[in-house]
Amino acid sequence: MLVKQIIKSYQEGQRLKIEDALVLIEKGDFLEVARLARLEARKRHGNIVTFVIDRNINYTNICNVGCKFCAFYRRQEDKTAYVLSIPEILTKVEEAVDLGATQIMLQGGLNDNLDFTYYLDMIRSIKNKYDITVHSFSPPEIYHMAEITSLSITGVLKKLKEAGLDSLPGGGAEILVDRVRKYISPRKISASQWLGVMEAAHNLGLKSTATMMIGSMETWIERLEHLDKLRVLQDKTHGFRAFISWTYQPGNTELGGKKISSYEYLKFLAVSRLFLDNFDHVQGSWVTQGPVIGQLTLAFGGNDLGSIMLEENVVKAAGVNFQMKVQQMVDLIKSAGCKPAQRDTQYNILRFFE
Predict the structure, then answer these.
(1) Residues near 286 by Cβ (< 8 Å), separated by ≥ 6?
(2) DSSP category for residue 165
(3) Does residue 8 belong to any structural domain of this protein?
(4) Residue 321 reports pLDDT greater than 70
(5) pLDDT exceeding 70 applies to what percent of the chain?
């Protein structure tokens, strides 16, 4: 009876509370929750499912944080540690542009040996040579830049924006609950600091995405607290373009453990679509789940399948290496009964595929 009351209330336009969402997760019918989420996605976007062509360039794998869930980072002294030069980055950008990319995502470790000018020169060099969106630098990276420059968060963001930064990815969020963060990433910024960077960016007109990594050690309540914090900030700034969740990959990590089931991921995805009523877009993760489950996300509230990923190194370091070409993405969306479309970073449609 309680589940029916919650669904009825939702259908009448009432916003889900954390306790409502928990009931849907624990007692709601898997397919009924999926149906509601799919209806929500259809109401917003019709039958259109989007993707973007981009390249994720990890400019350094050297990081001082050492998160227990990360298999990508290296210490300064490690033989496989690296920092890409500006010419090397430009070569990667040119390759991406030649392959039709409209977006570059620059992300890297928190490297104490990199000066702030490195980041500014990186963006300027790209923007001076290529007409491409620079969707780059997660909140931990922004916070790190503030620490090495003694600038405020807003000061750092202003300089990056002046250099050509267009928007921010939502990396480094993991779970926005400090109990979890203190265990899996004790040296990383706090939940409130992550949210503070995003609020400062939004106030400067820099839009962003919001992300979440599920399945490390958090509870269902903590997952929903994460969603609630995102929804509260979105009410305030309207600066998030999309919500993107993916599952923790334990391979080659200090934290270890097991992957959560696709069933658990899909049910969470559906509830997140219902809960985040002020988010336009919800992305399904084929990168961590594989193409088959990625396709299923379209029946659980997803309306976007993210990037073709011309390059991806972080998830790959944990032993997961799914790849996709444009035609494969198009065929996957079509076979789900949806209309595929390539988008840009702002979610403008660039072209449809018949």
Answers:
(1) 293, 294, 295, 297, 305, 306, 322, 324, 332
(2) -
(3) no
(4) no
(5) 94
Q: How far apart are CA 4 and CA 215, in angstroms?
A: 28
Q: Could you tell me what percentage of the chain is helix, strand and coil, using 3-state DSSP and rounding each to the nearest 5?
A: 45, 15, 40
Q: Check: CB of residue 293 under 8 Å from CB of residue 34.
A: no
Q: Rounded mean pLDDT of the chain?
A: 91
Whether residue 139 lies inside any domain: the answer is yes
pLDDT band at residue 319 under the 50/70/90 scheme: very low
Q: How far apart are CA 194 and CA 62, in angstroms?
A: 21
In angstroms, how far apart are the furthest CA atoms of the chain? 62
Domain housing 60: 18-352
Q: Residue 15, Cβ neighbours under 10 Å: how many?
A: 12
**DSSP reduced 3-state for 352:** strand
Strands of 53-135 (E only): list them.
Answer: 54-58, 103-107, 133-134
**For residue 97, is it within any domain?**
yes
CATH code of the domain containing 223: 3.20.20.70
pTM above 0.90, yes or no: yes
Partners of residue 282 on adjacent β-strands? 243
